Amino acid sequence: MNNHLLNGCIIGAFGLFTITSCSAPEQEASRNMQLRSLIPNENILIGATVNQWLVAADLEKDEHKLDDPSYELVGSRNQMEIEMSVVPQEFNCVTSENCMKSEVIAPKKGEFDWVLADQFVEYAQKYNMTAIGHTPIWHSQAAIWLCHNEDGSLVSADTLKANIKEYITAVYTRYKGKIKGYDVVNEAIEDDGSYRNSLFYQIMGEEFIDWSFQCAMEVDPDAELYYNDYSMSAPGKRATVVEMIKRLKSKGIRIDAVGLQTHIGMDFPDFAEYEKSIQDFIAAGVDVQLTETDMSILPNPYTGADVATRFEYTEEKDPYKNGVIPEERLKEWQNRYKDLFAIVNKYSDHVKRVTFWGVTDASSWKNDFPIKGRTDYPLPFGRDGKFKF
């Protein structure tokens, strides 16, 4: 989820790294982890995404300049310093935001730029945090060569299969033993349960999903493999995801968990439907993860998370731009988050991770989505780095 307009990526450096093994209680001994008051099971990872400038600054690396000018620092440098102190204290898991997407790692066929993804791994290991890879196969931010010939025409199904295998093999081999799991395929299903008419689907049909998971399973047998999507409470999408899980398993292809992005609001989704999806995914034989959690406190004209969707700015849809949230409204926001975490705790044997999309409100993509220029407060940590519960 979230393209580069929403900020950079969780960053990383080069070279070979070794993983420091450590139990969850030992990992958390040196952390603050205030979210443990709401998600007490220490077997559930609590994670965040961070942008490339934060990581580069933390590692004292020069910024890696990207040709695309839309990769721009979100928030102030002072804000970055606040988040640099929050992440290692409050989280034990990090997800790559943009740096492991194919357009960043492999902008041209056979040419790989590992700088940012390497720095991501180095950053995770510096603080003994679990690293999650996001996302090898996604219709947005896909390297052009995956689906296009040099003349701009679409590749054949056989060529796409070869290209997917080439990309997944390169990435998963390089980070074998360093990345716990990957969102192998991202956002391939529409809310009504139909398959998204992406270029991958146009060329290969639903088989591109099966092939991607098969390649991932073969290249790194120890990495966990996830399907990730938004609006997962939608009954049509839920049904198709269950069918997909069963299809993969029937072919002997491994899928370990389904990622519910959980970009939610004060009035969506219906948590009964959300819980039903968790139940059905578990019944289909996989675990569940909340992978991109945030909850907008603002009036919202849109309940999805397609990054291409935008609406016009109006004052009434930006009621807290002065930073003052009425106490009653804040309490409602807190209680709705607690209702979400109650579901997490209810299924804690199968919910393995809760990751937030961003660190503090200041760098959240929700300040611009789906209406550019709004001031939102969707994360558990405010702009000052303080816990909001």
Provide structural commentary.
- By secondary structure, the protein is an alpha/beta fold.
- The protein has a single domain (4-367), classed as Glycosidases (TIM Barrel, Alpha-Beta Barrel).
- Helix content is 34%, strand content 12%.
- It contains twelve helices and ten strands.
- An eight-stranded parallel β-barrel has the order 1-2-3-5-6-7-9-10, surrounded by four helices.
- Helix 2 crosses helix 3 (77-90) and helix 2 packs across helix 5.
- It is globular.
- It starts with 23 loop residues before the first helix and ends in a 33-residue tail after the last strand.
- The relative contact order is 0.14.
- Mean pLDDT is 91; it is low at 3-22.
Summarize the structure.
This protein has 389 residues and is an alpha/beta fold. The protein has twelve helices and ten strands.
What's the SSE blueprint?
Blueprint: H1 24-28, E1 45-49, H2 52-58, H3 77-90, E2 93-95, H4 102-105, H5 115-126, E3 130-133, E4 137-138, H6 144-147, H7 157-174, E5 181-186, H8 199-204, H9 207-219, E6 224-229, H10 235-250, E7 257-260, E8 263-264, H11 271-283, E9 287-295, H12 327-346, E10 351-356
Helix pairs in contact: 2-3, 2-5, 7-9, 10-11
